[in-house]
Amino acid sequence: MAEQQAPRATTNRSTTPGSDTFKDFISSRWADRAPVTPSPREQAVYAAARRSRLSAQHPGERLVVPAGSTKVRSNDCDYPFRAHSAFSHLTGWGSDTVPGSVLVLEPVGDGHEATLYFRPSAGRDSDEFYANPEIGEFWTGPRPSLEQVGADLGLATRDLAALDAVVAGSDERTRLVREADEALTRRLDDVHEALATDSGGAPPVDLVAEGEAFARDLSELRLVKDEYEVAQMREAVAATGRGFTDVIADLEAVVAHPRGERLVEGTFNRRARADGNTVGYDTIAAAGDHACVLHWTRNDGPVRDGDLILLDAGIELESLYTADITRTLPVSGRFSDVQRLVYDAVLDAADAAFAIVRPGIRFREIHAEAMRVIAERTAEWGFLPVSAEESLQPDHQYHRRYMVHGTSHHLGLDVHDCAQARRELYLDGVLEPGMVFTIEPGLYFQPDDLTVPEEFRGIGVRIEDDIVVTADGAENLSVGIPRTASDVEAWVARG
């Protein structure tokens, strides 16, 4: 077997033995590995149904969906690998995906045949398994065989080397997820450019536009979750709830540390690694006026008694489905009168938005309902120069000073799932059973905001829940994680 050179091999510091004697010795006297042929994993049948729906949208076209490759963090150290969400959605392969894998749907008759290309395990007679620090078994662990993955995912499999013929045979009917694998995108673009040159004309299609359209279709394919996906969301929410409880149990140590926010982040991340794959996004552990910074992920501040801490966090499972939940906790165990006033206003907005969720309404109506409550409360407190009704007019929106973000986003394999879907199917889309999204209103009074009384300044509150649309309404998947002010106080007291 030919030696596979690591693309970023650093020969200037390599001490890997290279003598023939060593090669003969290291390739011999290994015990046989018992063959393992797994049964198809639960999600395989659902992934096959998703591929069928995609196939129907693209008759006669070759569809190429890469998992992507590892990405450099620093020099020759990589970030942990995570497969592209569209790839995982269509294959059912999650955290155990082999980097560099590619799903190809080849048009056959009225449909497509799906083949998964990936780099299988190398034999002990190769140099790769001990000398290649990027993919060698001694360095990164063994890879499964073609047969194992084929049985596991219910897919035809081929060696990644066979993908060269697919690339070479591509034409204007090939659709690619361009963002997933930069190197593969360049290779396919080179093939298209050569075809255009040979024909003496311009490229027959706008590859970027076609890629955007294909990414849109894949994104919209995830707008309605199947029963497996909803079950995964339940599991992710449950694990996230346990992570929040861990943080509460650790509050004494958190308060004692000068960078208590870091301890909150670490405590939650420990649960994420124990009960899932990792966190679904960078944890926001925002104490005091840091809670007024919407995406505070530095998490380097203290957590003080008397402050609130806004914890926005979610656990991603091995299947790559993630929760996204926010709770705002009184560090001392009790809300002050002003903190509770703000908290209850946000809770009222969340409950009002949830109350209207049912099939047939527009997604944007959820945000409008939450904003109605936010406008009413801030007007009641005298923070607006006009009435709530006037502020809600599109050309005013004074209340949005205190909540500039949206109320909801779709959720699933990505924390901001289906982001490339068309506006008419997302923001202006009609709700259907199986859609999963957040409801997350908030109020944020910056520490230097002179439009509000001093006692409000530096208070930030967000309450975020994960919602699934049902046949006749909706279910709050995270309702079991304490939400009301009194329940949150009791939760902290138990911790």
Short characterization:
With 495 residues, the protein is an alpha+beta fold. Helices cover 36% and strands 14% of the residues.
- Structurally, how many domains make up the residues? 2
Helix content: 25-40%
Beta-strand portion reads 5-15%
Q: In CATH's first tier, which class of the largest domain applies?
A: Alpha Beta
CATH topology of the largest domain: Creatine Amidinohydrolase
How are the strands ordered across the major sheet? 6-5-4-1-7
The first-to-last residue Cα distance is 58 Å
The CATH architecture designation of the largest domain is: Alpha-Beta Complex
Poorly predicted runs of 5 or more residues: 1-5
Largest sheet report:
5 strands, mixed
- CATH-assigned homologous superfamily of the largest domain: Creatinase/methionine aminopeptidase superfamily
Rg, alpha carbons = 26 Å
Got a strand count? 17
| Shape, principal axes of CA atoms | globular
Helix tally equals 16
In round numbers, the mean pLDDT is 94
